[in-house]
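Letters spell out the chain; the tokens describe the backbone. To illustrate:

===
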Amino acid sequence: MHIYGGSKPIEVFPDKVVIEEAEGMHDLATLSFGSNYGRGIVSQLDLGNVEAKDVGPPAAVEILAGSAIMTFYGYVDTTVETRARTAESSEEIFVLSASSIMRSGKPRVWRDKRAFFIASDIISSYGLGLEMDKLPNPMASFSQSDESDWEAMRNLAMLNGLSLTATTTTIKLKDVINETRRAKGSNLTHQFHRPGTTGPGAEAMRFSQVASRTPIGGETFRYYGVDQLGASFEVTGGVSAISRSPGIVVRSLGTALREARRHESIGRFVTRATLDAAGVMGCSAGECIVVDNERTPEYWYISTSKHTFVPKNDNHTMTLELCRQEGTIPGYIPTQIVRRPSTVLIGKEWRADRQWRIEL
């Protein structure tokens, strides 16, 4: 594992590595060390100017698990030293993913633009890639105030019922249901079966499913305004009891009706579950897995993943937070995604080695 940004790369050997990935959040790698060794590493780091919102030194966390190699690209964000009288002291280094470069922003407004255009515009200066489910209808209005560009991307995803994740230097905005449909026809989708059962794939150590339904997207929105004849109008749309207030002003009744229909079309009700199992590379937030229930395979979207590695014991475990559309067996969508660009270090920033913008 290497940390860059100084006169030469620093090679480190942590006692434990935890990789946490979640919807709408920057991925996080936590490296844990014994105190003396860790203190020596921390003393060599320059974390930059916090007030200027500088990112810390770039780091590539390379993990070997079995025959698979995983690389986490990001920036050193925080170091923590813990001292105790009854236990050995320890050092932790927290590394935020490459997407954490999106920590600034500026006020701006897009009108009558498709979400793909807006997302492409937001990330255009960072050298990051974009994969996004196609949304054909333009948005009447989308605005960014003083929040960061990452927060703006998260708001854009929420307004369109999409899941926002980041893989290395690629930002992904995906429809959860469409992603499970793509997984159905892929032989690369990892398979598991529930504890105490037989079936394809590895046996889960624990599987906990939530019986209640949780809405994803489709919150009720209110649109109102005054038309060209001076008549006022108000339209609401969405499938959830959760409402967004105080409402959005639009230019015409036609725009209000179009936005209401758009929100109703993205509303979903999903079932959620938690799976604990031996670690498998590639089971990350934004991907899908199959869990066999002794009757029919269930296709689940990974909304949150936590991978724990202990190198000296060659131990790798994971906890996955899952969701899927309730009572639906997805039909296959034959989507071919070409090979994603590799990650390169330009100066002190991680970037995709070529422009990468695709709609699925």
